């Protein structure tokens, strides 16, 4: 891509020259129009800036010119802002570039200055091109083309087409690049004042043809490019570059002597002394063609001289290709180990600078040099080459998509603008009609609304009354059923258990009998079962709303009773007793059952010595916290039936239950109920 890079930067030089010419013309116009005369100090600042070559001084003078131009009217600012922004970009001050370019866009947009809008977009394209963000650069080239088209400036439209073509060429979109180049050439129609631009176009077409393998066409395009050069110093540099390109074409077709002749002709140019990068490239290419021809006499000297120049210029891509050529030289003179080391160095450097062409070239060379690892290098070559082809296809599609989506977006935006205008007109008409109807029927609507609200209120009151009545009936039925179960347990099951225990106690058991202890344990277990059934019976028959003790007292008694059975210490803290006693019957029952189940689990599983219970209730919520100092809850017990019942009861009363192990030991159960 070295040729493409050279052509691109030559194109930027042309842009700068064209801007200088344009500035001169604009200054002349300003002198003819008194209302746009540029102050003398601003003109001097611009002249000094353009005449100096020291970057530090250029930046200082440009800052001075910028401060002066900001104070001028918009008509004068529009003449220079985008040019100053581009100058800041060239000097590396991207922050000033962005600020000034944004201001230039705003000013040009306010005046519908299509040319300046195009120039601003061109600046953005140059900025993203420099960052190698080619999709963004392509977008701004396309936007600039639209504005320059509106300004009816064919030359700048052609320049934007060339910029878009150059980006597509980077991703081997040959047909897309050629279409854009030919569109640009047809637009200018062979006008003589654009000779330099024609040279750039035909040089790019030559490079494309070479990459496609059409070397005959590549030579023809390069010869056509040379026809557009004159005797200026800029043209001489281009002529040297073209001779180098022609030499590369001959080299790739195996005509090494023809390539050598072109390289030597280019090296003989006096103008080459001012272009050290191109000088190094020619030295390297000349030595490489001589090596291919079998002449190794002065090859190493030329390679090293070129490498020294590129090292000094920090031209990483040039160093890579130079190193590859040196590796091939040592392969030719039968020093394979040194050749392998150089090829490996070139491979790593190409990978670091993301140079896919030379990275693949280094892998291919290593595969031929290092027989032991040849298969590995070939596999890397195939894999990387496939990925590069895939990326290039994606990028080609991406640029097509950018162009398509941009056009679609603009068309859609225009259509939406028209639709919005129509909708606004229709909406305003409807608003007028609806407003008239509203004032006419306002009283009638209000009357109907009040009547409807009254009917709804009466219906809601009736539904609420029925709901309360039904709830009371259900609660009464539940209480009756609970009392019946409690009576059955107390009078039936409990009596039978008591009788069984009594009969068992009168059974004759000899003190010498081995089953005496077992007999006594059964009696004790039966007595314990009786006590548990009695507790259940009392609890079922207990109706919190009928208790004189109050619900908070009932909770406290439950805690103390359970703690007494298990011989546990307790710490009880109850706040907001007046709110606790005012809970609904359903809330009281479920809270009581949750606490009862939690205490039972602690007694059975926790092996605790202390239970801390805290209840806090106000008008909005109730918080219940149960904490023990036991061994903690196991993970597989968190989904037990008892815990599921506790969660279910909490959910019934609009509450949430959380269980967690405490540190260093114990378990904490927290219940939060929204009232």
How would you summarize the topology of this molecule?
Blueprint: H1 2-32, H2 40-51, H3 55-70, H4 74-90, H5 94-111, H6 114-130, H7 134-150, H8 154-170, H9 174-188, H10 195-212, H11 215-227, H12 233-252, H13 256-267, H14 276-293, H15 299-313, H16 316-332, H17 336-352, H18 356-369, H19 374-505, H20 516-541, H21 551-566, E1 569-575, H22 577-581, H23 585-606, E2 610-617, E3 621-628, H24 641-652, E4 655-661, E5 667-674
Helix pairs in contact: 1-10, 2-3, 3-4, 4-5, 4-6, 5-6, 6-7, 7-8, 7-19, 8-9, 8-10, 9-10, 10-11, 10-12, 11-12, 12-13, 12-14, 13-14, 14-15, 14-16, 15-16, 16-17, 16-18, 17-18, 18-19, 19-20, 21-23, 23-24
Q: How would you characterize this protein structure?
A:
- With 675 residues, the protein is mainly alpha-helical.
- The protein is built from 24 helices and five strands.
- The chain has a five-stranded mixed sheet.
- Strand 4 (655-661) and strand 5 form a beta hairpin.
Quick rundown:
The chain is mainly alpha-helical and 675 residues long. The protein has helices spanning 2-32, 40-51, 55-70, 74-90, 94-111, 114-130, 134-150, 154-170, 174-188, 195-212, 215-227, 233-252, 256-267, 276-293, 299-313, 316-332, 336-352, 356-369, 374-505, 516-541, 551-566, 577-581, 585-606, 641-652; strands spanning 569-575, 610-617, 621-628, 655-661, 667-674.
